[in-house]
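Researcher: Following up on the earlier apo prediction. This time include the ligand. It's magnesium ion, with the SMILES given after the sequence.
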Amino acid sequence: MNKQHYTIGLAGHIDHGKTELVKALTNVDTDRLKEEKERKISIELGYAPLINEDNLNVSIIDVPGHEKFIRQMISGVSSIDLSLLVIAANEGVMPQTLEHMEILNHLGLHDVMIVLTKIDQVDEELLTMVREDLNDTLTGTFLEGQSCFEVDSVSKKGISQLNEAILNKLKSLNSRPTEGHLVLPVDQSFHLHGIGTIIRGTVTQGSLRVGEKIYLLPNGSKAQVKGLHHFNQPVNEVFAGQRAAVALNNVDLADVNRGAVLTNYANTTASSRIDIELNVSFLFNSSIKQRAPIKLHTGTSEIYGKVIFFDRNRLEPDEDVIYAQLVLDQPIYVLKDQRFILRRATPVELIGGGKVIEPFANNIHTTKRLLSC
Ligand SMILES: Nc1nc2c(ncn2[C@@H]2O[C@H](COP(=O)(O)OP(=O)(O)OP(=O)(O)O)[C@@H](O)[C@H]2O)c(=O)[nH]1
Ligand SMILES: [Mg+2]
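Model: Understood. Below is the ligand-bound prediction.
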């Protein structure tokens, strides 16, 4: 019987116990870097397999909570099936709890389980207050009415119940389509002496085999798959939903930075002008003018550019859905309906998110001319 492949992503404020929770669930410490150990914070994405007896192939992605590392957070959750929104009982809802919640919402990641950690750090009275505060925060959001799991990750109280609920939830979700062309956004790349260029990422669509010819976007160069690993095990094929490390023949490291995409679809190219449907976040409370500099996050890439509104000269808060064009500083490979997050370039602030409605957009003047015909 074929295994089903799923990826779970963590989300939540700094120090709220995401890495400790991953450790309690998987026995893997995802804070591997020396700097992470010294500063006692997560900086990079961390990965761990969730071993289970249900024949499900489950990967967990741990993300940093610090607001400075939001880019890593967005790229980490961009390819997940289920998220665990972590809130520490001794602090309750904090700024990145809300920001991460909005990021999940705008990326269309609505399968979320809420986990209250550090319950050993509070008494029953404070726990009741935190539950009420959380309930108030979630009211009116896409997470209204969600049940909440309570754990102490250090003593593992509540972990086996959470583990069981996670597996039951995954079984109720549709697995990602393994048919269709390959989409593998790169989240790490490095050079390994004697082997060459290696990339890591989560396959979001399709599958990939050893020996297969692939294309690297945005630059369009061709390469061949020399070898594949899934969590340090050599494999012949990887499928949508799985983590993969891919050894590539004849590829410069510079061509496969985080944000590049591997595909086996020949007839495609990158674009630097895209039309978007943008849902404005309730956290956006300043205003931006026509052609303001923005940061686009989609897949694992982060690209600067300008926003051009179709119907206004300024975007104010309290808007719902608007349509706009992004003119990007570098070309990007995106698909129609692909989800994204939009942030103001300086000072950095979440504007909102939505989906790409036209990956190869016309110059705005051409669009206006076409509309007036
Ligand atoms: N007592 C207790 N301590 C916890 C629990 N969860 C986490 N901690 C501790 O809280 C501290 C922060 O936990 P982390 O898991 O590193 O927090 P994080 O959310 O991964 O932090 P960032 O990745 O930097 O955002 C560590 O010292 C953990 O051991 C818990 O349930 N109970
Ligand atoms: Mg961490």
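Model: Residues 42 and 111 are 24 Å apart (CA to CA).
Researcher: Noted. I'll compare it with the apo version next.
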